[in-house]
Write a structure and sequence with these properties.
The structure is a single chain. This protein has two domains: 176 residues, Ribosomal Protein S5, domain 2, CATH 3.30.230.10; 223 residues, Rossmann fold (3-Layer(aba) Sandwich), CATH 3.40.50. Helix 2 crosses helix 3 and helix 7 packs across helix 17. The protein starts with a strand and ends with a helix. It has 17 helices and 18 strands. With 416 residues, it is of the alpha/beta class.
């Protein structure tokens, strides 16, 4: 008996509904998967067979063919394990044939039948609702993320055997209750401006940059507090709206970087890639494009420390996304566009030794060395940075002052 189960692929930041068809054909026992699957999808054959048997359910000794339609859409990752396994059970008429007609099924299976986490659950749930599906079956760890999409019943599945018992009516799984946004925990490990001693003029410049959405360059010797000031920047940016938070969460879900302790990104992102990063890692790329650091910094701050140490090709490829607030990556298979509306905070030393113009330590660099070092950053890139400010080292008297400065909350009120 031919069976059909609906699942979903993630292309860029959007979900595309995939129909998983399972049928038997003549031949030696085995399983063939067609429909443009990657190697990870082809490996589902062994996982699905072991999961079904270890769940106490029969696996047919027949030639099984699995078709993932539409065939033009690339299928990758192990998230098709659960729909394929369910298709095998439907084909054997072990569960009611119409039990998942209005449902999306997604999840990786372990050999014992446990359903594991899958990335990209938020765009999958959004696509399910847009296409008129009523339910989505996901792993227990992904249920809170899927429940962010309204008007969709989210069924958290612990194992294949639990799903089987639910569909035959033996033990019903209760739908996950959608979380209230104000009840979702917000991480508190963020630097507050009141913890930073001195640098009042730099704090004021950061406030102006936050209010106007300006890019900023901090130049000063080592130990002046450039990194600490940049890390405090998100604490004075306006709070994200629900739509903005969902946009950011969608990106992190696809990149599989969503924090495990919260399903919703409520704090503005702060990304600080190392200067050895490739241009594909910064703007996105790969055989099938993935979001890069500039997209992970969407609606937040991208901090580039040791700015001149970044490769010239890496910095120059950022220029167009900084103008367009998005990045388009083209491959032979097609083009994908990712959002990249971020604020750039760059930090650099004035010279290779770091003490050019400093009163605390003499500079050991020649004039030519200083000029050559600062010219590593091109003019067009500097033109896109609105605020350039020097960050001197803080005097000991200011560091030992116990008076507490303005808090980030007080500054954010003015910014908003």
């Amino acid at each position: 008996m031919l069976s059909r189960v609906f699942s979903c692929a993630v292309i860029g930041l959007e979900g595309v509904v995939v129909e998983v068809e399972v049928d038997t054909t003549r031949g030696f026992p085995g399983t063939d998967i067609v429909g443009l699957p990657t190697q990870a999808v082809k490996e589902s054959r062994e996982r699905v067979q072991a999961a079904i048997k270890n769940s106490g359910l029969p696996y047919p000794r027949k030639r099984i063919i699995v078709n993932l339609a539409p065939a033009a859409v690339r299928k990758e990752g192990p998230a098709y394990d659960l729909p394929i396994a369910l298709g095998v059970l439907l084909m054997q008429m072990l569960v009611p044939p119409d039990s998942v007609d209005d449902s999306i099924v997604i999840g990786e299976l372990s050999l014992d039948g446990t359903v594991r986490h899958s990335k990209g659950i938020l765009p999958v749930a959004a696509a399910a609702r847009e296409q008129g599906f009523k339910r989505i079956f996901v792993s227990e760890v992904d249920a809170a993320e899927a429940a962010l999409i309204p008007d969709l019943d989210v069924i958290p599945v612990k194992s294949l055997s639990a799903l089987y018992k639910h569909l035959v009516g033996e033990k019903i799984i209760e739908a996950h209750i959608p979380p209230l946004v104000d009840k979702i925990p917000v991480p508190s490990n963020i630097t507050d401006f009141s913890e930073i001693k001195g640098q009042e003029h730099v704090k004021r410049a950061l406030e102006v940059a936050s209010a106007g959405g300006h890019n900023m360059l901090l130049m000063g010797p080592p130990g002046a507090g450039k990194t600490l000031l940049a890390r405090a920047m998100p604490s004075i940016l306006p709070e994200m709206s629900i739509d903005e938070a969902l946009d950011v969460t969608r990106i992190y879900s696809v990149a599989d970087q969503l924090p495990s302790d919260t399903p919703l990104m409520q704090l503005r992102p702060f990304r600080s890639p190392h200067h050895t990063i490739s241009h594909a890692g910064l703007v996105g790329g790969g055989n099938w494009p993935r979001p890069g650091e500039i997209s992970l910094a969407h609606r937040g701050v991208l901090f580039l420390d040791e700015f001149p140490e970044f490769g010239s090709r890496v910095l120059e490829v950022m220029r167009q996304p900084m103008e367009d607030k998005q990045v388009t990556i083209s491959r032979a298979q097609g083009s994908l566009t990712f959002p990249a509306n971020f604020q750039l905070i760059a930090a650099m030393n004035p010279c290779p030794c770091g003490f050019h113009g400093s009163n605390t330590k003499p500079c050991t660099c020649s004039h030519q060395t200083v000029t050559r070092y600062q010219k590593r950053i091109s003019g067009p890139m500097l033109d896109r940075i609105d605020i350039h400010i020097e960050v001197p080292r803080v005097d000991f008297e200011k560091l030992s002052d116990n008076r507490r400065g303005e808090t980030s909350e007080e500054i954010r009120v003015r910014v908003e």
